[in-house]
Amino acid sequence: MVWARIGRTRIVDVSSQRFVGLDGIKGFALIAIVLYHCKQSVLPGGFYGVDVFFTVSGFLTALGLVRALNRGRGLDLARYLPRRATRIYPALLFMLPAVVTLAWLVDRDLLVGIRDQIITAALGCYNWYAIANGQSYFEQMSPQIMRHLWYVGVLMQFMLVLPLIVGVMWKIRRTRLSLLIPLGLAAASATAMWLLYTPGGDPTRVYFGTDTHACGLMLGVALAWIIAYDGEPSATDGEPSETDGEPRPGLGARIWRALAPMLAFLSLIALIALAVTGDQNEFAFRGGIIIASLLAVLLIAGTISTDSWMQDLMVFKPLAACGRYSYGIYLWHWPMWLLSLAVVPRLIPTPGPWVWAVAAILTAVAVAASWKLIEQPAGAYGAAFVLWPGKRFTNRQIARAVIVALLMAGSIAGCVQGVKDAPAKTSIEIQLEQQAAELERMRELNGTMTKTAVPQPRKPKHTMPSGGEITAIGDSVMLASSNGLNAAFPGIQVDAEVSRNMGNGLELVRERLGEGMLRQWVVLGIGTNGPADVGQLDQISAALGSDRVMVLVNAHGDRSWIPPNNQLFSDYAAAHSDSVVLVDWNAAAEGHRDDLASDGIHPGMTNDYYAQAVRQAIEQWIAAGH
Fold it and tell me: What is the pTM of this model?
């Protein structure tokens, strides 16, 4: 056996090509990522799974290079680079045209910007393309179908620079300073994320950036060096066993073996806690991701340690299977989720887990096909074998190659057509722009924003207000509902734009007050695009004064901050019942899911459910004696 050491303590048998339990760790991380992508409200901190994946990837990739150096083969780039490319590209190039073809057949809104997405994904730089084009990982109003490939881009860039890093570590190995290189790079990356992150701003730059999100990768490299670097033999490493000549563990090794599984288990619990309670807030980018990466190191080290009972937990077959096929599942789950989300509600309008079920089935079929037809043959015999069996041909392999060729020909043809027919904007974007233009036209026609004097607030008790007594400030959900609001409240002053949040609402209220244009009833529909807090509501309430009524519209959608926002609005309305009305748009939207746009958030432009929810809430509030 070959033993890895920490200092003079041997801890891991590294002679095996596979470590028991790593597939389970990858499976755990993958489940967190998938739940975060598809049902963010269920696991709001599931994005920490990416950092576990990064740490595992850094560890395994560096491990191969250090092993090659130990065996005197050098970095062996002639073997390393083709193997890395074969692991990534066949499955990726099979998925890209297939997904574009399906989107072209099912929902062409998903093809917005698809040409550039394909090119940058294939070149391994999608993360930088997304940063440059302002795509947000945490904004899902109009999600890009290839958005999840930012991770693959970071990984590919890491794999290109890793030989240089390990090569330098090997050059200075006798100085005992080698570990400072990956640890220093991890610290530099974490510091860059900390400094570049702007609280309350879009964190996409620091999350997608290879420079700012390399902490886990580099910690994985450090762990690989600790475990795999042979160093110099030492007489104190252990005594030969009487039975098989293996080293007898010393005191340090026995202590580590006793503590390692417990450390790994506690790290797993801590990672689960982060996934359940986490959010895209300042803590995540100024400490949370660093903590998750460090916990991943402990989880890996404690699981693969000799005789660790954590291995029994991590070989649980469903979990290990998710890890074994993790790359294919990661590639396919997000496109299949978006495609299912676009189609299933139209085919099965009744509430139920139908989108989940269809997405899971489609993903499983796609992953199985990719594994059997593409990944397994490429991994065994090389990428060229996927389409040309060569001397190893059998009837079965010929049939497989023919099937792959037909599938690729069909998907490439569909991909070309999809790129050709890709719209410049989604249908929702076009409709919202039309609504915004119509609102502007009505403002100019009626002079509601600049010409008409605002009626003076009147004292309670209240009666049902006319449109001329209402100012509505909102986001794209209100913008989509502006026709309904104008029909329900003729003369209403609607000021709605995309991507607004509660912070914008406070600014707009103050602006309208300064202009003398804020009416007695102020409808606020700005809970969809980010978290709100009681301090913001207090400031808006103070600005409105005692003579105005705040009408809070809660939000509908699968975003981690929406349930807390809705609870906050409900509690605030109950605590300030004399001056705050709560509109339960979430319940109204749930009752008319068939009439929502394909994103499951925006109401249809022609219905008035949003406006009727506002009217009904005000009527009930007045009927209660306010």
Answer: 0.83
